[in-house]
Amino acid sequence: MLRENVYNQSMKTPDVPDNESQRLAALASLDILDTGPDERFDRVTRLAARFFDMPIVLVSLIDLDRQWFKSRHGLAATETPRDISFCGHAINNDAPFIIHDTATDERFHDNPLVTSGPQIRFYAGCPLILKDNIKLGTLCLIDKKPREFSDEDARALQDFAGIIESQIQVLCIATTDELTGLNNRRGFIAQSNHSLKICARHGMPASLLFIDIDRFKIINDTFGHSVGDQALQAFARLLQENFREADVLGRLGGDEFGVLLVNTQAADGKTIVEKFEEALRSFYPSQAYELECSFGLVDCNPEVAPDIEAMLAESDQSMYTHKNQKKDAS
């Protein structure tokens, strides 16, 4: 009777995490999607396959509409759609997500990954968790036959997942500005390229804001570099508070910052800039110094393939034009 009831149910698609925009932004900033094999990850999947005597072990990263495998042992496919993925369910859990037998589970019995290749009957996926509860994907184990999986096995899987998390953390450090916590230039470019592809796919506009803090060297020379660092940190916080979660923020170097405005044309971006300047003026009268900025704002050309490097060069030039206009007017 149980099997009859089960087969009357239809497949359940994964829920979307509450912090989906932050999660996708973190994944994009790593610049890891669609990259080649990496022995740091492959070593772990090989060891896990041997330890658990498991035919398939994957490091799966959950993108907007797919799960992509950074490391795969025993599987030829490099990705599958997110809406049929087991790992899409696993990232909504804090502990390992385990399906002992998909044939008796109403959520998965008619899943295409069960009824056809790779014919999953057993699944155990441990979410890969970064700071702020960001779950990028899983380390998962797959078998074509039902399996038991003890609490001790689950703890061992978490240990293996912790090794993957530590390797991903190394990538995070490489794409994060240590002082402000924003993307560094590499992280900004990677995340912006990802966002621009999404905008192009869905026909959404995008614009790039290049920001340069005027006369910042004077603050360092007058008050010291520690005060200058505090000013940059405060400036970064203001950016985070006044731009949307979907926008991409980065410190491009020194006193230069970038903001990719998603689903926003440059004409509308000017209003956003004016609101940020107002917030900047409201914050800094309490300090011994003031911060003023020059801005360059350009549209993404919808007729050509998105190119964040070209947009940076164009917005940088626009920013210098704005800076020189202010000098001429003073």
Q: Could you characterize what this model shows?
A:
With 330 residues, this protein is α+β, with helices and mostly antiparallel strands. Helix content is 44%, strand content 21%. It contains eleven helices and ten strands. Strands 3-2-1-6-5-4 form a six-stranded antiparallel sheet. A hairpin with a 3-residue loop joins strand 1 and strand 2. Helix 2 packs across helix 7 (185-202). 36% of the residues are buried. Residues 1-8 have low confidence and may be disordered.
Write the layout of secondary structure elements.
Elements: H1 2-7, H2 20-29, H3 39-52, E1 56-62, E2 66-73, E3 79-81, H4 87-90, E4 97-99, H5 112-115, E5 122-130, E6 134-143, H6 151-174, H7 185-202, E7 206-213, H8 216-223, H9 225-242, E8 248-253, E9 256-262, H10 266-283, E10 293-299, H11 308-329
Antiparallel strand pairs: 1-2, 1-6, 2-3, 4-5, 5-6, 7-9, 7-10, 8-9
Helix pairs in contact: 2-7, 3-6, 8-9, 9-10
List the secondary-structure elements in sequence, H or E. Answer: HHHEEEHEHEEHHEHHEEHEH
SSE-based structural type: alpha+beta
Average per-residue pLDDT, rounded, comes to: 91
**Inertia-based shape:** elongated
State the end-to-end CA separation.
Answer: 84 Å
Strand percentage: 15-25%
Low-confidence stretches: 1-8
Radius of gyration: 24 Å
Residues in helices, as a percent range: 40-55%
Treating each run of at least 4 consecutive H or I residues as one helix, how many helices? 11
- Largest sheet geometry: 6 strands, antiparallel
Question: Based on DSSP secondary structure assignment, what is the total number of beta strands?
Answer: 10
Major beta sheet, strand line-up: 3-2-1-6-5-4
